[in-house]
C-alpha cells in the first residue's frame, strides 16, 4: 500500500475490533479513533466508504479530520468531522431567499442562506423554485396573491436535485415584504399586510415569524 | 546581504549548528484567524508564514468556473518587510511562479470534484523570510485546508534539500540557499506522492536520488509535526467539549 512509507502512530487505523463487540440497536458505533486526512481506516473487504472517506487501491481512507463511525449493519464507515466543514444542504433544511421572479405556477427564489449556517458560504446554491402546489395547504388560485417579487422567504427544501422548496408549514413563508406601490416594508395586520406609508393592503403566505427577522 | 562563508560545513555541523539531516525548529498554530474558514500560522526557523483558506465559495469571474470541479486558487505573497531590504509590495515574477507551483501542489490533493463551480482560495502571507518560504507555505496551507474541513486525499508536507560544500543537506537556511550549489524544494503526501518538485542548481543523477531520499526523511518529520498539531487542536477539543461539537454522536468514556 502506498501510504505505508510513513508509519501511523500506535492505535491509528483500525476500528473494526472495538466496533464489533458493542453493536446495539441502531448498529452505529462511534469509536474513539481520531483520524486525519489520508489516514487508513480499513479495507474495502471490511467496509464501504461512507461520508468523508475515500477508496484507493483496496483501502478506505479518511478525507477529513474527525472520528470514525462504523455502521456495522450496513458495513459502512464514515468520518464525523471535528473541524468546521463546508456547509452542505440536505432535504428538509430550512433556507432563506429572495423571490426574484413569478410565473403562473412558480415562484423563483435566490437562496441567500440556510438555518444553522452562520459564517460560511454554502457552495453551489443559486436559484430554487416554489411550485403553487407547495405554497400552502389550501388551494392557491393565483401565486401573486401569496408571494410578491423581492419578498424575503423562508422555506424548506423538498427536492435537492431540482431545488424545489415548500412553504406549506406555518413557520414557512414570507418573512419580509415590500409594498408594491411605494416599496416600504409592510406591517402585519392579522392575516394581511398593510403599508405604513400608503395604506395599501396586500395578501401573502406569511411565516409565523413575519417581520421578526428570526430564522 | 551577508558574505559567502568559506565553509558551510565544519566538523559535520552547519553554520547554525545543525547536522546535515536536521530541520530548523518548527512551530505550528492552528486557526489563528477568526474570519477565515481555516488558517494556520507556521514558524520554521526564522520563516514566519500565515496561511488562510476560504471556501469552497462561488468563483468570480464566472467564466473561470469549472462545471465539473472546484478551482484551487493559491496566492503566495511576501510582505514588504519580510526581508532585510524592503521589497516592493504586490506580485512579482517570483511570487507568481510560487503561486502557480503551490496551486499545482494542492490540486491533486483536494477533492475538487465535490464542489463544482466553486473556488478554494488559499492565501499565503510571508511575514518573515529566511529561505524555504515556499515549502513552509505549502506546509501551512496543508494545515489550513485541514482546518477548513475541506476533504483531501491527505496532508501535504514539504521541505527543501540542497547541496553545499559538495554535500547533500536538508532544509537550507539563507546562506546555504544564496551561496549553495543546489536547492531542491519538494512537497509530498504522506504516501510519498510528490506534488511539488523544483530544482535550482545542478545535481548529478546519484546526488538527485540521494537528495530525494533525504527530502522524504524531512517530509516525514514535517508530517509528524503537522499531525501532532492537528491532533492537539482537534482531538483535545473533542475530549473537552465533544458533546457540543457533535450533538448526535455518542461520546466514549475515555479519550486519551
Identify the CATH class of the domain at 94-175 in chain A. Answer: Mainly Beta
| DSSP helix fraction of chain B | 25-40%
Mean pLDDT value of chain B: 90
Distance between the termini of chain A: 49 Å
User: What ranges of chain B have pLDDT less than 50 throughout 5 or more consecutive residues?
Assistant: 241-256
> Would you count the extended β strands of chain B for me?
10
Shape of chain A: elongated
Q: Looking at this structure, what is the CATH superfamily of chain B? A: GHMP Kinase, N-terminal domain
CATH architecture of the domain at 94-175 in chain A: Beta Barrel
Q: In angstroms, what is the radius of gyration of chain B?
A: 19 Å
Identify the most extensive interface between protein chains.
A-B, 35 and 47 residues
Multimer state: heterodimer
CATH topology of chain B: Ribosomal Protein S5, domain 2
CATH topology of the domain at 94-175 in chain A: OB fold (Dihydrolipoamide Acetyltransferase, E2P)
Largest sheet of chain A: 5 strands, mixed, barrel
Q: Estimate what percentage of residues of chain A fall within beta strands.
A: 35-45%
Write down the Rg of chain A: 24 Å
Task: Write up what this structure looks like.
The complex is a heterodimer of chains A (215) and B (256). Chain A is mostly beta strands. Among the domains of chain A are: 68 residues, RNA polymerase II/Efflux pump adaptor protein, barrel-sandwich hybrid domain (OB fold (Dihydrolipoamide Acetyltransferase, E2P)); 82 residues, Nucleic acid-binding proteins (OB fold (Dihydrolipoamide Acetyltransferase, E2P), Beta Barrel). Chain A is built from one helix and 16 strands. In chain A, the strands form four sheets. Chain A has a five-stranded mixed beta barrel with strand order 8-9-10-12-11. A four-stranded mixed beta sheet of chain A has the order 1-6-7-3. In chain A, strands 2-5-4 form a three-stranded antiparallel beta sheet, with no helix packed on it. Chain A starts with 15 loop residues before the first helix and ends in a 12-residue tail after the last strand. In chain A, 35% of the residues are buried. Chain B has 256 residues and is α+β, with helices and mostly antiparallel strands. Chain B has a single domain, classed as Ribosomal Protein S5, domain 2 (2-Layer Sandwich). Chain B is built from four helices and ten strands. In chain B, the strands form two sheets. Chain B has a five-stranded mixed beta sheet with strand order 1-2-3-5-4. In chain B, strands 6, 7, 8, 9 and 10 form a five-stranded antiparallel beta sheet that branches. In chain B, α1 crosses α2. Chain B starts with 25 loop residues before the first strand and ends in an 11-residue tail after the last helix. The C terminus of chain B is likely disordered. Classes of the chains: A mainly beta (215), B alpha+beta (256). Chains A and B meet through β1 and β6 of A and β3 and α4 of B.
Amino acid at each position: 500500500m502506498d501510504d505505508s512509507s510513513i508509519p501511523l502512530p500506535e492505535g491509528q487505523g483500525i476500528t473494526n475490533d472495538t466496533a464489533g463487540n458493542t453493536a446495539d440497536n441502531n448498529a452505529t458505533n462511534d469509536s474513539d479513533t481520531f483520524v486525519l486526512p489520508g489516514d487508513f481506516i480499513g479495507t474495502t473487504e471490511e467496509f464501504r466508504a461512507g461520508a468523508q472517506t475515500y477508496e484507493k487501491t483496496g483501502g478506505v481512507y479518511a478525507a477529513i479530520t474527525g472520528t470514525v463511525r462504523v455502521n456495522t449493519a450496513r458495513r459502512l464507515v464514515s468520518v464525523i468531522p471535528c473541524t468546521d466543514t463546508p456547509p452542505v444542504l440536505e432535504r428538509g433544511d430550512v433556507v432563506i431567499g429572495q423571490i426574484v421572479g413569478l410565473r403562473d405556477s412558480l415562484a423563483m427564489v435566490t437562496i441567500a442562506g440556510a438555518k444553522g449556517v452562520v459564517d460560511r458560504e454554502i457552495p453551489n446554491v443559486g436559484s430554487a423554485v416554489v411550485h403553487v402546489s407547495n405554497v400552502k395547504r389550501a388551494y392557491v388560485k393565483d401565486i401573486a396573491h401569496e408571494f410578491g417579487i423581492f419578498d424575503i422567504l423562508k422555506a424548506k427544501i423538498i427536492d435537492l436535485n431540482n431545488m424545489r422548496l415548500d412553504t406549506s408549514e406555518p413557520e414557512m413563508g414570507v418573512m419580509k415584504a415590500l409594498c408594491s406601490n411605494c416599496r416600504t416594508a409592510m406591517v402585519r395586520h392579522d392575516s394581511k399586510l398593510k403599508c405604513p406609508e400608503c395604506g395599501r393592503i396586500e395578501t401573502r403566505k406569511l411565516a409565523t415569524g413575519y417581520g421578526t427577522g428570526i430564522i | 546581504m551577508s558574505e559567502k562563508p568559506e565553509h558551510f560545513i565544519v566538523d559535520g555541523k552547519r553554520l547554525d549548528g545543525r547536522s546535515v539531516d536536521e530541520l530548523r525548529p518548527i512551530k505550528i498554530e492552528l486557526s489563528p484567524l477568526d474570519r477565515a474558514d481555516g488558517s494556520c500560522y507556521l514558524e520554521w526557523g526564522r520563516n514566519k508564514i500565515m496561511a488562510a483558506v476560504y471556501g469552497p465559495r462561488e468563483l468570480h469571474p464566472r467564466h473561470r468556473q469549472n462545471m465539473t470541479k472546484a478551482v484551487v486558487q493559491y496566492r503566495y505573497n511576501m510582505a514588504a518587510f519580510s526581508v532585510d531590504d524592503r521589497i516592493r509590495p504586490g506580485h512579482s515574477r517570483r511570487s507568481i511562479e510560487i503561486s502557480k507551483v503551490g496551486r499545482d501542489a494542492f490540486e491533486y490533493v483536494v477533492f475538487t470534484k465535490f464542489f463544482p463551480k466553486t473556488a478554494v482560495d488559499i492565501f499565503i502571507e510571508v511575514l518573515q523570510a529566511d529561505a524555504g518560504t515556499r515549502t513552509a507555505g505549502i506546509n501551512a496551507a496543508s494545515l489550513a485546508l485541514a482546518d477548513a474541513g475541506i476533504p483531501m486525499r491527505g496532508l501535504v508536507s514539504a521541505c527543501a534539500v540542497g547541496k553545499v560544500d559538495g554535500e547533500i543537506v536538508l532544509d537550507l537556511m539563507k546562506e546555504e540557499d544564496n551561496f549553495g550549489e543546489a536547492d531542491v524544494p519538494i512537497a509530498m503526501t504522506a504516501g510519498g506522492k510528490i506534488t511539488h518538485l523544483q530544482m535550482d542548481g545542478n545535481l548529478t543523477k546519484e546526488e538527485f536520488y540521494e537528495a530525494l531520499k533525504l527530502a522524504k526523511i524531512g517530509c516525514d518529520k514535517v508530517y509528524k509535526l503537522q499531525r501532532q498539531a492537528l491532533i492537539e487542536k482537534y482531538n483535545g477539543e473533542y475530549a473537552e467539549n465533544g458533546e457540543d461539537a457533535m450533538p448526535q454522536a455518542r461520546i466514549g468514556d475515555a479519550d486519551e
